[in-house]
Amino acid sequence: MSQMETGRAFDPVEEILPAPRLFTLGFQHVLVMYAGAIAVPLIVGRALQLSPQDVAFLISADLFVCGIVSIIQSMGATQWFGIKLPVMMGVTFAAVGPMVSIASANPGNEGARMLFGAIIAAGVISIFLAPFVGRLLRFFPSVVTGTVILAIGISLMPIGINWIFGLPVGPTAPKLVDPAAQDWLNSAIAAGGVPEGVRLLPTVPNPAYASGANILIGIVVLGAILLLSRFGRGFVANIAVLLGIIGGGILAALMGMMHFDAVADAAWFAPIKPFHFGTPIFDPIMIATMLLVMFVTMVESTGMFLALGEICGRRVTPRTLTAGLRVDGLGTAIGGLFNTFPYTSFSQNVGLVGVTGIRSRFVCVAGGAIMIVLGLIPKMGALVESLPTTVLGGAGLVMFGMVAATGIRILSKVDFAGNRHNLFVVAISLGFAMIPMIAPDFNQWMPHAIHPLIHSGILLATLSAVLLNWFFNGAAPVSEDEIRAAGHAAEAH
Question: Where are the alpha helices (DSSP H) in 313-447?
Fold first, then answer.
């Protein structure tokens, strides 16, 4: 018996659709977020210099936890957790910069233990901070959030570019050490004429860097995404990035650049075990770094939830907003336990709710269940890990560029003509964001313990934007309409 038949007002958020339609719509949500969901474990896993098997495990763990946290957020778990709206949760790109800094400074299993320890602690602390986020929103008006999101996009762009041409170090570095010169040096060291610490500079151009085949695949992926976005309709346009990656993978396989040995060796089913890399290490500086990230993501989630509430015709009260933000913290803590990353609401899926008009939260519950199943199939993670990075490069330009464009979109609503001080906030904060990219060794004389904190352009930009905005503009209360408008603007990324 329907709600209308029982005399109650129909609530589309509580509508339970027939199982086949529920599965189809849930799978649609999974496809929309899939490309973004796999990008972060690939980036961080390779920054940690993990084996292909461990990177594949990170991808499976990420999909698994995405599903669990999406179900908690949409279904609700007691009155304390879950906003009970159609929300898909995924790894936030805001955390990528700090996590890569931690991973680069501490590669391998030990670095993974330090990273996941910081994530667990930041998640647990964020659960208790959630009720206070609303009181601090006045420090995050549009000029700050727009600047931070723009800085996130700018900080991520080098990753996508290096995916196409080759990483700055390693087998795809632009230059290699001359083999003949290295043989001479080895002989000289063995003879005792040269100290063992002497190393040769790379001087020989590397054929693997910026190869024609890599550039071709990157262009094909980018071109496919643009064509699908331009001429595709509805759902096809929404999954243009995923379809571009699939097309690039097929082309790479045809060119002999993709190998499936690891996929064949991977099991069809395997549980996701917590603490895969060992007991977490809790470093205070790294925890502080991830806490700053969590606060930025909760501010962004606030805008998302208010915008989604408007789309669904359901007012988001302070109590329900806090319950939703607690899941950001709970999901992040669960992510750390299962060897994955900080979680937040995926804006692409908020946009999809508006496009399709399907507002049932049970669609996202079904999507979460599908993600859990995908995470329990190791062959899926191994298949994604086997993709050449150049395939992901073309998509990375779009994904990371859209993050930057979203920041610009939010900043377009800021008053620059009447308040020239806002120009200083944006200009100086973007300069801080670029310091680690332009001068990566700027912190070489600073205490090593704070390197992860200050080597993230995103965190430097966030601190700069908040302090400069407070200095120039004070901390006037931010209206709910402004927060909701920022959430609507962020649906593009």
Answer: 318-337, 347-356, 361-375, 378-385, 389-411, 421-438
Q: d(Cα 450, Cα 243) in Å, to the nearest integer?
A: 41
Q: Counting beta carbons within 10 angstroms of the beta carbon of residue 130, is it exposed (0 to 12), middle (13 to 18) or buried (19 or more)?
A: buried
Those residues with Cβ within 8 angstroms of residue 217's Cβ, 6 or more apart along the chain or in another chain = 248, 251, 252, 255, 257, 388, 390, 391, 394
- Residue 339 amino acid letter: N
Closest by CA position to 400, among listed 340, 472, 457: 457
Sign of the CA dihedral 35, 37, 42, 47? Answer: positive
pTM attached to this predicted model? 0.77
The DSSP element (H or E) to which 175 belongs, if any, is strand 175-176
Torsion, Cα 90 92 98 103, to 10 degrees, reads 20
Report the C-alpha gap between 198 and 319 in whole angstroms: 63
Return averaged pLDDT per consecutive 10 residues of the chain, 493 residues in all. Answer: 48 79 82 78 86 87 92 88 88 83 84 92 92 78 85 82 80 82 83 78 84 88 88 76 84 83 77 88 89 83 78 80 91 92 79 72 90 87 78 81 82 89 94 89 82 77 90 76 63 50
DSSP 193: S
For residue 284, how far is the Cα from the chain centroid? 23
